[in-house]
Design goal:
single chain, 407 residues, alpha/beta, Aspartate Aminotransferase, domain 2, Aspartate Aminotransferase, domain 1, 2 domains, seven-stranded mixed β-sheet, three-stranded antiparallel β-sheet, 15 helices, globular, binds 4'-deoxy-4'-aminopyridoxal-5'-phosphate, pyridoxal phosphate binding, biotin biosynthesis
Length: 407
């Protein structure tokens, strides 16, 4: 079987040979900037969110309000500073970053992890740095994956949403095409990229079948766990839930959803992280993640791994899905994102307005964001919703659904 992976060791050796290799400094040098000191105390103003129940946030575990997470951010601001002040490779590296990356690697079951200033920057920087010859991309992948492919100027083959059989057919087609053109596809590097949880459909990618196909054709797999990190097994994503850590070469995501902060990350082998420190321009030429954001994400990850917020979220998801379906609504997906699909865009807007009048916020999603005829309301519970909140949401949907004539 041809090896269509990426020779990261070779790349690193070449950089070293030409004295061009950059690396983060040893962690004891970073420690000089300090980290663990007494928090300064004092409460920051909190926005009043009492007037409506929000069922449309990516703050899935409700941790942006968590005292421990807020304290971690305050403490980092007070001891390390509010900003990194420079890129990580220059003077912007701190123990707060290292602590976050160590914990991400541990959660993701990888050798290392690297924090980026956003999930968008992580996707764009990673794909462009790898310069794959061909990317096989799910048709509903996030915009930052699409932009990464554009920036890498790579050939992108789009496969049907969550369809491993279609992916396999496209891989085979590509082998046959190369043979017809008399090229040796073994010279090429191939990357299969997918979101794990898709934000508009709530679907979950068939990662095991994708890994099977990847291994058969020698390609690498990159999974964007933006909507999954923190929510699945031991605070990981779908890769952890399915035990695929050793078969997915690149795990990536955001710190801005369940991890209640801002920023992104990539987790993988040491070679991968070292290559990104050299070649991911969105890492090299961008200021390090702000220390309070890194510290908040780190604490949120700790809470996600060891607390009961995940359990509460999934209970709320089950309660809400059961309730909506038993009313007669069509609910897509298989994750914490519950798209209530009503079809017509005017009906979707009327339903969203109706639930809003009943103090529940869950906006309508219409074309061009989603295909014509599949307008929907994306209902997303959080771990911090209590039983009464879920019941209030269901009652709002029942009343508004009847008013619009959908039930
Ligand atoms: N990937 C996916 C699947 C996302 O949904 C998002 C955010 N909407 C991103 C990447 C980008 O993450 P960030 O907001 O941290 O830039």
């Amino acid at each position: 079987m041809a090896d269509r992976g990426f020779d990261l060791e070779g790349r690193l050796d070449a950089l070293e040979e030409h004295d061009l290799k950059r690396a983060l400094s040893p962690v004891d040098r970073v420690a000089e900037r300090g980290y663990f000191a007494e928090p300064s105390g004092g409460d920051l103003p909190v926005l009043d969110s009492a007037e409506a129940l929000v069922f449309a946030s990516n703050n899935y575990l409700g941790l942006t309000d968590d005292q421990r997470v807020q304290d971690a951010a305050r403490q980092a601001a007070a001891t390390v500073g509010t900003g990194a002040g420079a890129s990580r490779l220059v003077t912007g590296d701190t123990l707060v970053h290292r602590d976050l990356e160590r914990q991400l690697a541990e959660t993701k079951g990888t050798e290392r992890a690297l924090a980026f200033s956003s999930g968008y920057a992580a996707n764009v920087g990673t794909i462009a740095a790898l310069e794959p010859d061909v990317v096989f991309s799910d048709e509903l992948n996030h915009a930052s994956i699409i932009d990464g492919c554009r920036l890498a100027d790579t050939e992108t083959v789009v496969y049907d949403h969550c369809d491993a059989a279609d992916l396999r057919a496209r891989l085979e087609e590509r082998v046959e095409r190369a043979a017809r053109e008399g090229r040796e596809p073994a010279d090429e590097s191939w990357l299969i990229v997918t979101d794990s949880v898709f934000s508009m459909d709530g679907t979950v990618a068939p990662l095991e079948a994708i890994c099977d196909a990847a291994e058969e054709y020698g390609a690498w797999v990159m999974v964007d766990e933006a909507h999954a990190t923190g929510l699945y097994a031991d605070g990981g994503g779908v890769v952890q839930a399915e035990g695929l850590e050793d078969r997915v070469q690149i795990q990536l995501g955001t710190l801005s959803k369940a991890l209640a902060s801002q920023g992104g990350y990539v987790a993988g082998s040491s070679d991968l992280i070292e290559c990104l420190c050299n070649d991911a321009r969105s890492f090299v030429f961008s200021t390090g993640l702000a220390p309070p954001a890194a510290a908040a994400a780190s604490e949120a990850l700790h809470v996600a791994r060891h607390g009961d917020a995940r359990e509460r979220l999934w209970e709320n998801v089950a309660h809400l899905r059961d309730g909506l379906e038993s009313m007669g609504f069509e609910v897509w997906g298989d994750s914490q994102i519950l798209p209530v699909v009503v079809g017509d865009r005017r009906d979707a807007i009327a339903l969203a307005d109706g639930v809003r009048e009943r103090d529940v916020v869950a906006p309508a999603i219409r074309p061009p964001t989603v295909p014509e005829g599949t307008s929907r309301i994306r209902v997303v519970p959080m771990a911090t919703h209590d039983r009464d909140d879920i019941i209030a949401c269901l009652e709002a949907f029942q009343a508004a659904g009847e008013e619009v004539g959908l039930l």
